[in-house]
Each structure stands twice: as C-alpha cells, then as structure tokens.
Amino acid sequence: MLSERRLQVLRAIVQDYVGTEEPVGSKALTERHNLGVSPATVRNDMAALEDEGFIAQPHTSAGRIPTDKGYRLFVDKLAGVKPMTPPERRAIQNFLEGAVDLDDVVARTVRLLAQLTRQVAVVQYPSLTRSTVRHVELLSLAPARVMLVLITDTGRVEQRMVDCPAPFGETSLADLRARLNSRVAGRRFTDVPTLVEDLPEGFDLEDRGTVSAVLSTLLETLVEENEERLMIGGTANLTRFGHDFPLTIRPVLEALEEQVVLLKLLGEAGDSGMTVRIGHENAYEGLNSTSVVSVGYGSGGEAVAKLGVVGPTRMDYPGTMGAVRAVARYVGQILAES
Amino acid sequence: MLSERRLQVLRAIVQDYVGTEEPVGSKALTERHNLGVSPATVRNDMAALEDEGFIAQPHTSAGRIPTDKGYRLFVDKLAGVKPMTPPERRAIQNFLEGAVDLDDVVARTVRLLAQLTRQVAVVQYPSLTRSTVRHVELLSLAPARVMLVLITDTGRVEQRMVDCPAPFGETSLADLRARLNSRVAGRRFTDVPTLVEDLPEGFDLEDRGTVSAVLSTLLETLVEENEERLMIGGTANLTRFGHDFPLTIRPVLEALEEQVVLLKLLGEAGDSGMTVRIGHENAYEGLNSTSVVSVGYGSGGEAVAKLGVVGPTRMDYPGTMGAVRAVARYVGQILAES
DNA sequence: CGCTGGCACTCGGACGGACAGAGTGCCAGG
DNA sequence: CCTGGCACTCTGTCCGTCCGAGTGCCAGCG
Prior knowledge:
The structure is a homodimer. Chain A is an alpha+beta fold. The first copy, chain A, folds into 3 domains: 4-78, Orthogonal Bundle (Arc Repressor Mutant, subunit A); 86-126 and 228-337, 2-Layer Sandwich (Beta-Lactamase); 129-225, Heat-inducible transcription repressor hrca homolog, domain 3 (Enolase-like, domain 1), CATH 3.30.390.60. Chain A is 48% helix and 17% strand. Chain A has helices spanning 4-20, 26-32, 39-52, 68-78, 86-97, 102-117, 170-184, 192-196, 205-224, 245-257, 259-268, 317-337; strands at 55-56, 65-66, 120-124, 133-142, 145-152, 157-163, 230-233, 275-278, 290-297, 305-312. Chain A has a 5-stranded antiparallel β-sheet with strand order 7-3-10-9-8, with helices on both faces. In chain A, strand 4 (133-142) and strand 5 (145-152) form a beta hairpin. The first copy, chain A, is elongated, with a radius of gyration of 26 Å. The interface between A and B is medium-sized, with 25 and 25 residues. Chain A binds a DNA duplex through helix 2 and helix 3.
C-alpha cells in the first residue's frame, strides 16, 4: 500500500531524526539521502505518511518526526539488526570472561550493555523455576533450628532458616538430607513440589513435623524467589534523553526502582527472539516515551532469563538490537561454561 | 566573633533558601522572621557574613545564598537534629519489622530512608570484618569438591567452592567442621586468621592439603568480601534537584553507579556519630554540589556498617539528620533481634 | 499519471529595546 | 549602633520585528 519510495522516505526520516534529534524537513532529506526526487515530491510522500500516522509535525510548518507507529514499521520492515564488529565481539567476550561468580557475571553484563548501547541496561538473574537443583543442604544451627541452603545449576544460592516444631537429631537430619537430594538433585524446580510430596511418610511420627516444616520452607523459597531479581545500570545515560528532561526522566527513574514493573515488562516480552516495545506499546505509563529492547538468554539452548535496555523511542534500533543480541549470546556461553 | 544576631540572620537565610530555592533578600528576611531590626541593618549583617564567606551573591543586586561554609556553620552551631515524631517512629518500626531476611532488611531500609528524606538513600551491607562468625559449614558436593558456607551474626551468608587436592572423606570433613567451628564460632572475623593458623597440624598428612585449601578459601572470602556491598534507592528524587539539572545530575548518577566511590565516601566518614559532608568537603568531584549525611549502624552497641543519604547541599539538614539517625537506630534493633 | 518548480503562507526562534521589581550599598541622622 | 532614604544595578519579562525553514497547493511538463 505504501510505495517503495515512501518507505525509503520514512527510513530516511527515522535515521535523520535519530541522528539530529530535530524534526526533519523535505529539503534536508533530499540533500542528505540521494533519493533521486525533488523536495516537492518528498513533501507529497510525507503528507501521505502523515495521513497514515507514521510521522507527525510538532507544529505547523515544522519538519516531521516519526510516531511510535512509524518506528514500529521501521523496526519491522525497514531496518535489520546491525551485527557487532569482530573487535567489538572480542571485547565483549574478554570483558565477560573475567567474571568470578554469578553476581559478577550479571554485574559485568549490565555494565557492558550500558556502555555498548549508551542506554539503561536491565539484566534479570537466571530464573529459579527454569533452573535445576544442584544440591540441597541442611545445617543444624541449634537443636530446633535448621538452615536450608539451595544451590542451583546456574550457581545461584538461596538460604532460609527453619524453626523446627521439635528438636531434630543429626541422624534424622542426615537422613532427610540424603533422601531429599536423591529425589530432587538434577531436577527442575517446577517438578520439586510433586517429587517431595510424600517424603514425610518415610519418617518417624515425631520427626514429621520438622520434615514438613523444612519442605514447606523449601517450597516457599521456590515461590518467593520466583519473583526474580534483576540488576540495572547505566542510569547516567538518562541524561542524554532529550531537552524536556525533568518531565521525561522522573517516571523512568521511578519505573527503574520498581523492580516489579520491570519484571512485568520483561515478562510480557515474547519468550523467544528479540522483542522491541516502542513508546505506548509499553503497558506501564511512565515508560510511554521509551522503548524497551529485550531478549532471552540462557546457558543451553533454552532461555532462563531476559536482558535488555531501556532508552528513548528515538534510539538507534539496529545498533541497539545488535548489541543486545550479541551480549545475550555471549552471556549464555559464559553461563554454559561455568 | 560573629554577633548573636548575625548568626540568627545566617540561620534565617539558610532556612528560607532551603524552603524557596531562591536567593533571599534583606526585606523578605525581616518580613518572614521577626528579627526586630530593619532591612538596612540586616543588609549590614549580610555584608559582614559575605566578607567572612558564609553567604554569596549569584550576581550583583540579587539576594544571598549560603555557601558550603555557611551550611557548615549552620549544621555545627545553629541547627539541632530534628527528632522524629512518635507516629513516624512507629511507621519506621512497622515497616522494618516485616523484613524476612538480610537482603530484605537492607532493601526496606533503603526505601524507607528515601521516602522519609525524599533524597537518594545509600545503605551498606553489614561488614564481614566487623561481624562475628555464627557458623561455618562444609558440604561435600563431590569426592574432591567441598562447598564452604559462612554464616554471620548479621545473617549474611557467603559461599565458596573449594577444589581439594585429594579426595576427602566424610569423617574427615565432619572432623574439620567440628574443629573449625569450635575455634571460630562467635569470634570476630578479624581474629579468624590467627585462630586457624595451626589447624592443619592436627590432621593426617594426606588430608592436610585439603584442610589448607579450605582454610585459604575461608581467609580469601574474608578479604574479598571486605569489599563491601551496598544498595541505593530513591534516585527518582534527583529530579527535585534544581533547575540547572542535567549538568548537576549526571555526575551524581555516575557516582552512584560506582559503588567504589560510594564506599570510599562512607568509609571516610567518621566512625562514630553522624557525619555531614557538605559540597566541596566531599573528595569526589562529581558530588561537589551535594551533601552526604551518614551514620554507622549495628546490631549491638557497635557499628557494623553505614547508611546515609545524598542530596543537594540545599537540603533540610535537621530533618534529614533526624531521619537518618532514627532509621539507623531501628535497623540496629532489627538486626539485633534476628 | 506522477514528478517538478514556483509561490504564498505560517510558525517558531532569535534579536533588541523598554520596563518593572527586587535587591544592594552608602550616607546622614537619631 | 540602628534606621530611613536614595540612587544604582542587575535580571527577568514582555512585546514587536524579522528571518528562515518548512509547508501546501497549483499549474505545467514528460
């Protein structure tokens, strides 16, 4: 429905606007991109594009800027993903390889993404629900006090205190530890509840209360920690947002502090492949003037968590998408190795 | 050297400026505070205060604003710490009591501080070096692989993998666990190195390598985790900074992302009592237009870490100091209980 | 039918002068 | 030592003008 040339014009407008941050007019367009037609023709095309809602004028007799819908079309049809250059790839790999533990991997990833894209980076910790159990440990800290430590294949460790209804001997503890591990080690977290369901039955009556307490704490941990954690960075890049600054930046900072909002944001993004949410496509109001580029990453072929960046709708989509994809890929590798 | 009235004038200037964010003139001063003298007199006093460097004019024929030196005097001599009201105290306590683990305590504290002061809050995790050991646990994950878990009296947990030079039996492991705990449980982290020094000597020759490996990992953990962690929050409050916004806010955001900078900042603050660093008193350049109010907190009488807020030099010092002190006190209580 | 050049029109941003208001410093008098 | 008065200075604002960029439309051309 839109002629080839009109798409070219839209692409040119997006590119110029992203570069200059200023409304772009017909004359400037023909000068910078050799479209082979005159400004007048471009004006006609622009009028058509405006009718369709892809671009808009801040005010009469100003240049045009892309609308969210315009960016959408640009991302879907007009722009590819700009691959990283080999030196960039090497830099990413080197930077990530120095990490010593999971926290460090996540921290480095955030830094890296923020630097590469010059935007705000968000990295979700590998999810517990999609991970598998490496080991469950029980420590007796006091006669009626047990500490539960949960170790995942992604290196994450969670611990919880359990107050026992009755004193619990070392032998019972060792017994429980052994049985518990033989059932859940190597299994996915989602399967754990059914796997341990009948476990108390094998124990003496007096110990069952404690066993149940331990198990329910374990299940609680799985549920609670289902609320994923995440790390953000590069907030200083918010200062490059635009001129109307204070109004735009405040809700963004607020959104970034509300991990719940961010997690929901990432959660809504498609499970496979890269997702780009532009402006009003974001459900959260404060982020209506931002775009979110996110992608899943994981140690194997499967995604265990997501990462991405938050930036102004006026962003370099191909470059950002390239960086996000590359970082996700390398983080996956690093996790697989450890 | 400064007459009583001149100090009153300075106090009035600080209070008005903090409230209005605008340079304050002699006339407005006499109107709002009944100083009992005429504007002309106040003008003379202002001239004197300016000569001494306590206040300054943005430009000729404008009102005066306090200098860093002026704020200093205000904080040291003119202002008290404004205590929290009973309802506020209750709110603090209620809010903190809902915390389930150390992470949660810290997270809640950050939120609380940011809300109370409407500024950026910084909370340091309880330091390992000043804490005591509650328990050291050793888990055998594989014949030659041991996991070391360290639990502190503040509820912090650290874990490390240890690769053993030789297979290490369960009995040896239990032996080591028992001996280790009998030596270090309840002791301060700083004392641990000397306490475990001769521990390998009690073991068979074949096990000594592993014992040494475990011990050196333990000591490493102490050193590494000496690099404290911290949590920040309330960055959205930065938007209330002032008009010249983008320039001021950027370096602050950058500083907040550099945990190293913040830790140094807190570290430089005095060990006991509340510390207020005003503007250029902060060593880090990016924070030259901010003030940092910090105080130590701890489970017992002794401080194990610090917390505080970062805000514009033009802040409500008495109120901020009151909030910081109160929060620190209640966090200390909560930690002591758990 | 689509492209082009020309033309009149509109609007925002920059420039500059005038003006009001707030604040100061200084001085003479109580 | 305080006070009222006075002249001065500086900023922020308002207003009118002007310029340039950009548009929409139209008639003509291939």
